[in-house]
Design a protein that fits this description.
The protein has 180 residues and is α+β, with helices and mostly antiparallel strands. Helices cover 14% and strands 13% of the residues.
Length: 180
């Protein structure tokens, strides 16, 4: 399928060969809506158009699936649950790393690891920023969850501490290290 670059929505995208983009960035394509996150792959570029492939990356490959039920567990109660559509899991996730017709993917031409601000990190961290990134209800909920799982004498590494840990103050820990 070929589209003109003008069909992309308002923000600027420089399409790169082999990369995936959400279908929702396209306009004027039948059955494609703004909130559609299903991927398409850029398979060709020239001055006037972008060629895209809506097929799954593994669509060209024959696949076989063998399934064996190794156990069935009794339902513990009717408290809700979920149903996993394993065929969808197997066909929607894998394959994104597969090349399109052995064409290399353009991952690096637009400096993807570059930073907007190249100043030395020490300048940013030189001034403490003592802000809470979540509200009081979220802090209370996290603290309650920590309280259910932590016990006295533990050594704890709090990876979401911010400038102050959310571990309840009344738990006597052996040590507490916070990174935030």
């Amino acid at each position: 399928m070929a589209i003109r670059p003008a069909i992309f929505i308002s923000f600027r995208i420089e399409p790169r060969l082999g990369r995936f983009y959400p279908k929702g960035i396209l306009k004027a394509i039948p059955n494609v809506f703004k909130s559609n996150t299903e991927p398409f792959r850029c398979i060709g570029l020239d001055d006037k158009r972008v060629m895209v492939d809506f097929n799954h990356p593994l669509a060209r490959h024959e696949a076989a699936l063998d399934v064996e039920v190794v156990g069935v567990q009794k339902k513990l109660g009717a408290i809700g649950g979920s149903c996993t559509a394993w065929v969808e899991v197997a066909t929607e996730g894998p394959g994104m790393q597969a090349r399109y017709k052995v064409m290399p993917t353009d991952f690096f031409s637009d400096n993807p690891f570059g930073r907007e601000d190249e100043t030395v990190d020490g300048h940013f961290y030189g001034t403490p920023r003592l802000v809470s990134h979540i509200d009081e209800q979220a802090i209370s909920t996290i603290s309650s969850i920590y309280g259910q799982h932590l016990s006295e004498g533990m050594e704890v590494l709090d990876l979401m501490s911010s400038w102050g840990s959310h571990v309840p103050k009344d738990i006597m820990l052996r040590s507490l290290v916070g990174i935030g």
